[in-house]
Structure formats: C-alpha cells, structure tokens
Input
Amino acid sequence: MTRVVFLLVPGVHLLDLSGPAQVFSSAADLGLGYHLSYVAETTEIPSAQGLTLHADTTLPTLSTEDLILTPGWRSPRLANTGKLSGATLAWLRDHHAAGGVVASVCAGADVLGRAGLLDGRRCTTHHDLQDELERRYPRATVVRDVLYVMDNRVITSAGIASGIDLTLHLITTRHGPAAAASIARTMVVYARRNGDELQSSVLLKHRSHVNETVHRIQDIIETRMTDRLSLAELARLSGCSERTVTRLFSRATGMTPLRYQQALRVERAEHLIGHGATVESAARMVGFEDARMLRRLRSR
Output
C-alpha cells in the first residue's frame, strides 16, 4: 500500500488538490494500492474557493514508497504566504532524504523551496509565479512554460490542472501506460500531456480579446481544424465580408485566420508526436497533405 499525503495550507486551491486526489483515488479503485490522507497545521483549512477542509494535524511516519504532495494556494505572490512551521518543513525534508518522493502543484513549489529541496535542482511552477520563484531560490533552475519537471524524486508542476498530468505520469511510471489510460478515461480527461508541453495553448493565447465575431470565427476554425477553410467560406459562415474577416481577426489575434489554423494544427501535431506518432502520421491526422508543411512550420 502506497500512502499519498496531501500537505495543506490555508487558501489551498481545490483543483490543485482534487485533481491529483482523484487520480490516486481512481488508482485505488483499480486495486493499485493507494491510501490518501490529508495533513495540515490546523484541523480546519479554508480553501481559496470558500469550502473549509478538515485535516489531520499529526504528521505520519512514512516509508520510501510513499508520496507527499503539496497543492498550491491563492497567491498573487509567494513571499509571506503558505506559511508552515520548521517542524513540518523538516518532516518534508526528512522524507525525501530517506528516499521518498515529494511533489507540488503551482505555488506548492515554494514549500519545497523552503524545505531546501529545490537547491541544485530543476523545477517549475505556474507561469505567473516563475519569476518570483527564481528570485527566492537562486540555486534552483526554474524551467519555464512546461507542465511538470522531475528531478531526483522532487517533482514540481505548473498551475491547477497540471497536477492531473503530473499524477497520471506517476501512475504511468509505476504501473504502466495502460493503467494511466484507464484512469484518464474514468476521469474523462482528453489526453495525458507530457511534462514538456506548454502551459499556455494556442487556444488560450489568442482568446483574450472581446470581439464576438472573431470568437465565432475561431470556433469555426477550431471545430474544423483539419478541413480546408477558405476565406470566402469563413466570411459566409460569420456573415461578414472577406475583407472584414481579415481585418477583425488580425486586429484581435495578431494573425490571419490561416495562420491561426496552422498554429492549431502544429500544436496538435506536437502533442501527437510527443505521444509516439511519427511526423508523417501526425501531419495527416491534423489535416496537412504531407509532412513537408508541418516540418516547415515547426522549424519557424
């Protein structure tokens, strides 16, 4: 039986906690031998979303097979937030020194840093906190814009949903990809992402504008990403002239509709390649006639 202990601090983000907890709970349902527990320095822990959680205040004795995971908390900055006592940090440090695994989601990386576990190691955190983490722990190497980093049994991940990716990866390394895939299906997770995939996707990066017409055009392109979409067809479907489509889209996103579709295709192809597809097969699956255009766009 592997014990997974979640170390909670006030203001904990529920998805930072519940995503990994659901993965390990589903693994337990499959008979893979996981027991979940929750510890904190007070019995009641308010979450960032307003729900109060109850935790054990006794730090358990763990074996090297066990895992401690620190979820993130509401933190526009790391300094003076997520406070824990020296005894709790020593417990975390001693578990790793004995051969155990420690992990974090989002701001939880700061707890590992205060325990001295980031020094000389590669790590990551949410993109809004990377600069501060780098300043606070100059002996650490902060890897930017990735989902998670593993370095000698210290595992750090980006924000919120990336904790699911991290824990599915742990299931894969311990029990194989079939077990991880089964859990992902149970959780209705679209796909298990590799650690080096970007935190910010094309869809998120170019959706921060407020132009409803452009959002409708993006919906069309995303739904029909693999299709040949002419400017004339986009204009017809959006009820605008071709000139208006080009002008509005470029102003809102900084690119043409064709470039946007290409960016979506390349991002999806990169994901497929990262999961074992060849460049040729990935190119065909995302709508390119052959791999030449995909190689050209990737080289940019």
